[in-house]
Amino acid sequence: MKEYLTIGEVSKMKGVGIKSLRYYDRLGILKPAYINPDTGYRYYSIEQMLMLDMILLCLGLDIPLKQMQEYMDNEGHLDMKGLLKDGRKKAEEKATRIQDTLFQIDGLERRIRGAEEIRNKGSDSYSKYIGERMVIALPWNHPSTDDKAYMSEVTKLYSLSQKLELTVFYQ
User: Fold this and answer.
1) Cα(32)–Cα(50) distance, rounded to whole angstroms?
2) Are 87 and 58 in contact (CB under 8 A)?
3) Are 78 and 51 in contact (CB under 8 A)?
């Protein structure tokens, strides 16, 4: 007789809740290899652990589990190449978004440090070396501590940079 894993063993082995495994069954993406007709207990084959790994990968990449049906043929076989190809694309897009967010965080932290430096100096003048680059600017006719005016002008510059299809670097 073929050896099976109980639903509890699979749950512990893969760190997946039993309710989740039952949900995957209802979706039709991970049906138990065997269900005991007397007890209703669910059993999984070792080979199915790869399918569970693919499900967990989809969850990590924000691929809806209902979309996994698109990668399965009529016999329930998974098109792993197609899923991995699309998964790679989603992961790369996610990595790009994360890199962009980290870049923005770095810029905001620099801006906060710069604002703190200005406040600590207590003067109305401020100078900073900026390496060679193309810059768009608006005239500044406000006190250096006018945060509301500053945010308004930054918003105008940001909108202008988007219209001009420029990359925004916070300085």
Assistant:
1) 13
2) yes
3) yes
Tens-digit pLDDT string for the chain (171 aa)? 468 999 999 999 999 999 999 999 998 889 999 999 999 999 999 989 998 998 998 888 888 888 887 888 887 777 888 888 888 898 899 899 999 889 889 988 988 887 787 778 776 666 667 677 777 888 888 888 888 888 888 888 888 887 887 776 655
Q: Is the Cβ–Cβ distance between 65 and 58 less than 8 Å?
A: yes
Secondary structure string (H, E, C) spanning the chain: CCCCEEHHHHHHHHCCCHHHHHHHHHHCCCCCCEECCCCCCEEECCCHHHHHHHHHHHHHCCCCHHHHHHHECCCCCECHHHHHHHHHHHHHHHHHHHHHHHHHHHHHHHHHHHHHHHHHHCCCCCCCCCCCCCCCCCCCCCCCCCHHHHHHHHHHHHHHHHHCCCCCCCC
The rounded distance, in Å, linking the Cα atoms of 69 and 67 is 5
Structure tokens at 94: 């996610």
Predicted model pTM: 0.55
Closest CA to 32 of 62, 2, 59: 2
